[in-house]
Amino acid sequence: MTRRDFFETVGAGIVVLLVEQDPILAQESGGGGRRGFGSMPQEVSAWLHIGADGKITVYTGKVEVGQNARTSLTQAAAEELHVPPEYIRLLMGDTDATPFDGGTVGSQTTPRMWPQIRKAAAEAREMLIDLGAQKWSVERATVTVEDGRVKSGTHSARFGELTQGQKLTKTIPANVALTPATEWKAAGKSLSKVDGAEIVTGAHKYPYDQKISGMLHAKVLYPPSFGAKLTSLDDSAAKAIPGVEVVRITANSGREGAGHDVAAVLSADPAAAEKGLAALKAEWQPVAGQTNSKDVFTYFKRNGNPTAPSSGLTQYTVAYIAHTPLEPRSALAEWSGDGKLTVWTGTQRPFGVRSELANEFKLPEEQVRVIMPDTGSGYGGKHTGDAALEAALLSKAVGKPVKRNWTREEELTWAYFRPGGLIEVGGKLNPDGTLAAWEFHNYNSGPSALQTPYAVASKTEQFHRVDSPLRQGSYRGLAATANIFVRESYMDELAHSIKMDPLEFRLKNTHDDRLRNVIVAVADRFGWKNRRKTSGRGFGIAAGTEKGSYMACCAEVAINNGQVKVVRVVEAFECGAIVNPEHLANQVEGAVAMGIGGAMFEHIDFAEGKIETNHLSRYRLPRFADMPAIESVLLDRRDLPSAGAGETPIMGVAPAVGNAIFDAAGIRIRSLPMVPKGLPAGGNGTTTSAAVV
Amino acid sequence: MARITELDVNGKRHKIDADADRSLLSLLRDDLDLTGTKYGCGEGQCAACTVLVEGQPTKSCLTKAGAVAGKRIVTIEGLLHEGKLHPVQQAFLEADALQCGWCTPGMILGAVGLLRRTAHPTEAEIVSGMNGHICRCGTYPRIVKAIQIAAKKGAVA
């Protein structure tokens, strides 16, 4: 794209482009010649535009799924440009309008995009100062930018007055040094959600709410079990309904359940489409002998094939669970006359979905536009373009725009899950309570946070890949939740085996100061040392680090008639310099709340290729009544770069609660979820295999 | 099949023509384009689809259109009064009681209903009154706080 084309699109004014200098990072976020904004090279990671009308627009490929990136990135620009946040508009996640981005994944928005936008805004501010100095022929040092105006002595001008008619660009490296957090003036303050008013009034249009004229609603006939083949279809009754069309689609690139050899019923009237779906008469050939949830852990062990496994390790298990974003997957697709495809969909990877679609339809990427309206959550579950692929295939087949909204049942069956896992662990202690040896094997759930942060001389830590019987993928925190659950539960087992206080045991084995700091902070706030044990009450502690941030968590449980209630959770969290304290607290609290589900009761049951927990009445989510009192202790380290906070805070809940249950009842629960049907009688083993060397 | 020809929503009588057994949720979203009312599960488990029918919080996904003919329905779009936010909406913003916001319209209408029944609920009354609503982002403690803020201001007379 030429400079002229660029300004034709965005309008005259000031443009600051951020260019990724690091070829490794550029490669990492790429994946094959991806380009954003027409032919803008993917090395451009963000840009900021100040128009002749003074409007400030920040363009980023990041997306908003409730984690408040729109707010924190607005804040970044507002802080550097010295304007109120309402002066800034963020254009996010539109592959035709924003720079390429690898995805809103892995807690990377704050450590990567946030400083880049600050830098772009700071550069734009300096350009405005230059313009003021030139216009008024004054010393640059006398020019200031305040409250949306450039000023010097008696001179004052709005941004737009200074840029009028000019086309000024500046390209800066994305990785240049920023104002250190220790010198921040205003960042680090709380700012309410910038688009909160649109949400509380119901005005915001989520992907599920998108409509265009002439569109058809699509319902899809999925197989009754995984892998079942459609052997016959009688669609005569469906086709007899006025305004109903039935089509068969098969994606080249699709996988089962997303546009791959399925029948669909379409109508301008969603109720008619629904009736049409019910009227289809289909016969299926199921696949026999599929792995069931009750024997999946044996399956993992049999197929994981570890090198040199030790005997006598302690086994833990982790069930598959579902993200259950409250807004299910959704897409609206439209083909224009010139063969360009536009899709509105809720995804954490709009550029990834564009690639999926370009690949399916053999189109250059520029011929596909993916637009991501702010979406009803993801938690790592909306990385793929399943609904987008279906809508695009169906739209092509019928020659009209097509809307494809997944139902909850489809969401709980055909989306991907957080992986289940089998974890085997063992350890040996020196007489003083320090770790002498450590062994850890994770089968299937993943390698995140596989390595212990504690000091230990001899260790074996392995991840064993298994071909999962269920479709699985990213979930908030990835396998770090499973690995930290097992590690911190087993650390508790080791502490109890030598009758050492679990807090003291952790501190004794911690050589990492940041980890130590969160452990000390959480214990102080929780009142660990003064805790008073009464009948049916127990206290647990856990800690860990992942993705550059540190957390420690204390939990108190109450057990009544075999029912476990988490009554209090305190979590200390440290992610470097804090960007927005209120939203960080909101993330930590929300992660604790979500973590309680996976810790206590969430689990996917499956048998014979069918998901049995395919409705909310069968898949229990945390509710108001499940909530403990939640307190967050946020450690602000202005001397450290900001890390992301969307994931790590979820990881401490399960082990802290499990350790508290052991403290209360003497039962060691070695499976997630821990108490889907209340406290197990005697648990699955109360003794530890830990040995003292 | 019985038809329904009129629906009283947000103080306005809307002419429609639909099967009386259609869900109120579908009529609101698909026929009247009031998409502030959200689908979450279709079986009354999450309450994202909550609207007020004659002032009572009602799960629109389980409510047949025929059952609400002639009744006064209020959706999130109808909660603004003379262009100003309802005190419960204001309190949700003040307490930052939302993340992705998909559950928020239903939560707010559920809270309005709760405060109409109990002007000054205890925390336990808020928890039991709102327990049918799911917030997957886990902002529950903030929602409790928002309802307390609204109650303190005498949100619903």
User: Strand tally of chain A, please?
Assistant: 31
Q: List the quaternary state of the chains.
A: heterodimer
Broad CATH class of the largest domain in chain B: Alpha Beta
Helix percentage of chain B:
25-40%
- Compute the number of strand runs of chain B: 5
Largest interface: A-B, 55 and 57 residues
- Report the CATH superfamily of the largest domain in chain A: Aldehyde oxidase/xanthine dehydrogenase, molybdopterin binding domain
Give the DSSP E fraction of chain A (strand runs of 2 or more residues): 15-25%
Please name the CATH architecture of the largest domain in chain B: Roll
Give me the Rg of chain B, rounded. 15 Å
The CATH architecture of the largest domain in chain A would be 2-Layer Sandwich
State the separation between the terminal residues of chain B, measured CA to CA.
Answer: 41 Å
Coarse morphology of chain B: globular
Order of helices and strands of chain B: EEHEEEHHHH
Whole-number average pLDDT of chain B?
Answer: 96
Q: Determine the structural class of chain B based on helices, strands and strand pairing.
A: alpha+beta
Number of domains of chain B: 2
